[in-house]
Amino acid sequence: MAGVMIHRTRVSHDWIDYNGHLRDAYYALIVSAATDALMDRLQLDAAYRERTHCTLYTLEMHLNFLREIQERDTVTVAVRVLGADPKRLHVAFELSREGADEPAATAEVLLLHVAQMPKVSAAPFPPEVSAAISALKDETAGMASAGPLSRRMELTRR
Amino acid sequence: MAGVMIHRTRVSHDWIDYNGHLRDAYYALIVSAATDALMDRLQLDAAYRERTHCTLYTLEMHLNFLREIQERDTVTVAVRVLGADPKRLHVAFELSREGADEPAATAEVLLLHVAQMPKVSAAPFPPEVSAAISALKDETAGMASAGPLSRRMELTRR
Question: How many helices (H) and strands (E) does chain A have?
Fold first, then answer.
């Protein structure tokens, strides 16, 4: 698995669609929960959000669906930090079914650090969060992805 | 609104996150429901799926989050067909809060027509579905997007 393990979840019955597998949007929900776990790791946790009124807003999410996930599956998520600037964070997630060798999905997410009060506006990360981001980037940025990266979507001959 | 109106939904209380707005993954769930509505329009409805054991699988989804959506909002979704080949369909969605001028999100989705039996494999669209896709493409492909398109995600100076 490419990245640092950040999240693990059972697939809920409610997430299965009429095709008999995990609905596309619930891959996104697993990515969203993995982002919450990443925030905890980067000291952007609930206590931080309550104290500072700062949080992360998602700017973009790009999902690649590689393999079906079934109701009986447990999904694990690994994260890599691809880039960061003073206010933004670019991360990659890899979703795998426990017991399977190949990833079930890859995702990239672009996140913005935001102060919600007095009005919603972009805000720089505090130094300790920047340091935590840098440390995780150093640990993971060089790891090769096991699946496709974000791209401009288009139909080309395969 | 750029595209043909395809879906309309109230925002559920359960979709609101700790930031007090629609959680990113539930934008994806609205896009997923809009895709179902699009399938109905293209004659890929439940009766078709039951009769043929064919359906659409999502290959990629790219979401751009432009504005916050609140619990009180009703969201409308417009669709454009950007491209198609014998087995795949590339569409763009625009999500708007009813009563607001600017879109709240844009999304692009790449879909594959699949036969689920005897084993899961890509399959060509039947002629009447291809015709319906072509008709919707002719109607919508030239409409300009009101928001950003899919792209290779990266941090660049803004």
Answer: 3, 6
pLDDT of res. B134 = 98
The string of pLDDT tens digits covering residues B67-85 is: 999 999 999 999 999 999 9
Q: Is B54 helix (H, G, I), strand (E, B) or coil?
A: strand
Distance CA B7, CA B30 (A): 8
A56, A154, B30, B52 from B23: Cα distances, Å: 11, 27, 11, 35
A116-130 burial by CB neighbour count: b if 16+ within 10 A, else e?
beeeeeebebeeebb
- pTM of the predicted model as reported, rounded to 2 decimal places: 0.96
pLDDT value for B43: 98
For A108, name the nearest residue in chain B, comparing CA atoms only. B153
The label of the residue with tokens 């009563």 reads B99
Q: Which residues of chain A have a CB within 8 Å of the CB of B28? A: 24-25, 28-29, 61, 63
Nearest Cβ partner for A153 among B57, B108, B154 = B108
pLDDT at residue A78, as a whole number: 97
| Complex-level ipTM | 0.96
Q: Which residue of B has its CA nearest to A21?
A: B57
At B61, which helix (H) or strand (E)?
strand B54-65
| A47 has a chain B CB within 8 A of its CB | no
Are the beta carbons of B25 and A24 separated by less than 8 Å? no
Decide if B150 and A155 are in contact by the 8 Å CB cutoff: no
pLDDT tens, position by position, A104-153:
999 999 999 999 999 999 999 999 999 999 999 999 988 988 889 999 99
- For the residues of B107-131, what is the DSSP string, one character each? EEEEEEEEE-SSS-EE-PPPHHHHH
